[in-house]
Write a structure and sequence with these properties.
The complex is a heterodimer. Chain A contains eleven helices and no strands. Chain A is mostly helical. Chain A folds into two domains: 47 residues; 232 residues, MetI-like fold, CATH 1.10.3720. The longest helix of chain A has 44 residues. Chain A is flat, with a radius of gyration of 25 Å. Helices cover 77% and strands 1% of the residues of chain B. Chain B has 13 helices and two strands; from the N terminus they run H-H-H-E-E-H-H-H-H-H-H-H-H-H-H. Chain B starts with a helix and ends in a 5-residue tail after the last helix. In chain B, strands 1-2 form a two-stranded antiparallel sheet. In chain B, a hairpin with a 6-residue loop joins strand 1 and strand 2. Chain B has two domains: 63 residues; 233 residues, MetI-like fold (Orthogonal Bundle), CATH 1.10.3720. Classes of the chains: A mainly alpha, B mainly alpha. Chains A and B meet through helix 1, helix 3, helix 4, helix 5 and helix 6 of A and helix 2, helix 4, helix 5, helix 6 and helix 7 of B.
């Protein structure tokens, strides 16, 4: 007597295996669909914007006439803002990460700070704009300056940098620290001369990704009230300025169709800047990967 | 011999003492933790700053507009001659867009996560995951432009009654934007289910699909749910896509083909307009911002509660 009815098994097995194949292809299809969306997005921006991308476009100021419009004030403004955001957010972020990983005791204050950081990461960027408008622009009287926008952006990306730096510091093996203590180094000497150099690739990778987010963010700048019609280059950190995404936003809203192409050209400049920053991050990650 | 040794060891101690007293060494050692603590406290101060600015300016708003009208009113007409401030149309606009985004992103994101974690080879995964993360890194202004100039015209060909500004197009694109969040976080949750469970089920004759849907997905459910809630919170706070493609007509209806306004888009509209400092409209953006903040805060708390409460330890 056969315990297994081969006919039934055969029939059910075929059904189950077909189902498996169908779903596998569905899942693959979903993945390809997401990738396709990215390709279409890139393709659209390139075909629309490439025609308007020229040396003049990089050198001109924004204009009422699409063919004369340029991005110089935004490009310089965004880079100037980055020059504020980079030192401020790195100092605060890495400092906080070292405190939390190396100095903080496991108590309620530390848990609170940690929880606060993860909640801060979930606050919408536009709310940071309201904070910047109230504190930096009005209360501290910085106006719509590079400094005000830069500080707002620094606070916005701070949680991302702290978390990245924490992971980098945590992944430095304990044996390195012990060796350093064994040689008679103090705690700060160990952190400054052993832990930080070992953690720097990880910190940089995470920070560059966070900084590229600061370059592309628009909402906080809109709320702060960064102007779009700026016919001069900034001459200091207290100078008024405009930024790349602000110009793109302004052009995209205009009714004339030509400005769509100008906006697409602006997007291409922004994307190239982001790709450049991201490739630096990837380069650092690959170069220093798995040293221990 | 003995005395010589002693002299030498005294020398070393002397050197250590010299070294210790030299320069900033000692002081720095004591000062550093304090400085670092202050940098860590900045994040707490930021939260306090956000909460207090929102609360103070919102209180000023509620001196002029009744709280009851604000939370139950179905008309949001701040620029009218007789302004009315009922938040519900803005909340509904936000929820419409978020709902569409979730409908798009959850099935797609989960499918991607299951494919990458259960079906794809290591090589494929290592290529696809970073590319998907690029989707998360595209600035939202770019998505907004794409929604307005590509997705909307394309949808208009399919649904001719679709207006230029609508909820559908930004909803779809926000879905695309939050897809990597769901895919990447869910994939992490799925892959962290121990292999023994997979092998056990496969050994009993399950197909890969049955393993994925009946064993791995239930085991990783907390991580998957948390990723969905986090993605929802990001969709609610999304600003530029809805400002560009959603329009600025706060209407209290469930139509997705017409112009809408979300909470974030209202703040942008006022910020780009010329409402003066100190006007009721000026204070209204803080009230709306506070409402938005509470929405996302609740979402984030739910997400962290889910991942703590329902975590299965293996």
């Amino acid at each position: 007597m056969a315990y297994i009815n081969h006919e039934v098994v055969e029939r059910q097995m075929t059904k189950r295996r077909t189902k498996n194949t169908v779903f596998k292809n569905l899942f693959l299809g979903a993945t390809l669909l997401a990738l396709l969306a990215l390709v279409v997005l890139m393709y659209r921006m390139i075909t629309q914007g490439a025609g308007y991308l020229s040396l003049d476009f990089l050198q001109n100021f924004s204009s009422r006439f699409p063919e004369k419009a340029g991005i110089s004030a935004g490009l310089v403004g965004s880079l100037a803002m980055l020059a504020v955001v980079t030192p401020v957010s790195l100092f605060l972020g890495v400092g906080a990460a070292i405190y939390l990983e190396e100095y903080a005791k496991k108590n309620k204050v530390t848990t609170f700070i940690q929880m606060n950081i993860s909640n801060l990461a979930g606050v919408p960027s536009i709310v940071f704009g309201l904070l910047g408008l109230t504190i930096f622009v009005r209360m501290l009287g910085m106006g719509k300056s590079i400094l005000a926008a830069g500080l707002t952006m620094s606070l916005l990306i701070l949680p991302v940098i702290i978390v990245a730096a924490q992971e980098a510091v945590r992944s430095v093996p304990g044996s390195l620290r012990e060796a350093s203590y064994g040689m008679g180094a103090t705690k700060w000497q160990t952190i400054y001369k052993v832990v930080l150099p070992a953690a720097i690739p990880g910190i940089l990778t995470g920070s560059i990704l966070a900084l590229s987010r600061a370059i592309g963010e628009t909402a906080p700048l809109v709320v702060i009230g960064i102007p779009v019609i700026v016919q001069f280059l900034p001459d200091g950190i207290l100078s008024e300025f405009t930024a790349l995404p602000m110009l793109i936003f302004d052009w995209a809203k205009r009714p004339q169709e030509e400005f769509q192409y100008v906006a697409a050209a602006g997007i291409l400049v922004l994307m190239m800047l982001l790709i450049f920053m991201n490739s630096i991050a990837v380069f650092i990650r690959n170069k220093f990967q798995n040293r221990y | 011999m003995v005395s010589q040794k002693r002299e030498k060891s005294l020398d070393v101690q002397q050197m250590i003492a010299d070294k210790k007293n030299k320069g900033l060494g000692r002081k720095a050692e004591k000062l550093v933790p304090t400085i670092l603590f202050i940098t860590a406290a900045v994040s707490v101060l930021t939260t306090i700053g956000i909460v207090f600015t929102l609360i103070f300016e919102t209180i000023e708003f509620f001196r002029r507009v009744s709280f009851w009208e604000y939370i139950t009113g179905t008309e949001w007409l701040p620029f009218a001659g007789e302004p009315s401030y009922g938040i519900l149309p803005l909340v509904l606009g936000t929820l419409k867009v978020t709902g569409i985004a979730i409908v798009v992103a959850v099935p797609l994101g989960l499918a991607v996560a299951i494919y990458l974690s259960e079906f794809a080879s290591d090589k494929v995964r290592r290529v696809i995951k970073p590319i998907l993360e690029v989707l998360a890194g595209v600035p939202t202004i770019v998505y907004g432009f794409f929604a307005l100039t590509f997705v909307t015209p394309m949808l208009q060909k399919i649904f001719p009654s679709l207006e230029i500004f609508n909820a559908l197009s930004p909803g779809l694109i926000i879905g695309l934007m939050i897809l990597p969040t769901i895919a990447s976080l869910s994939e992490d949750a799925l892959s962290s289910v121990p292999n023994a469970m997979r092998e056990g089920a496969l050994g009993l004759g399950s197909t890969k699909l049955e393993v994925a849907l009946k064993i791995i997905l239930p085991a990783a459910l907390s991580g998957v749910l948390a990723s969905v809630v986090l993605a929802m919170s990001r969709a609610i706070g999304e600003t530029m896509i809805v400002s560009l493609a959603g329009g600025s007509t706060p209407l209290f209806n469930f139509d997705v083909t017409g112009s809408i306004q979300t909470m974030t888009a209202y703040i942008v509209q006022v910020s780009t307009g010329d409402a003066g400092y100190g006007t009721t409209i000026y204070y209204s953006i803080y009230a709306v911002g506070f409402t938005l903040f509470i929405f996302t805060l609740i979402m984030n708390l739910i997400a962290s509660w889910i991942s703590k409460r329902f975590r299965e330890e293996y």
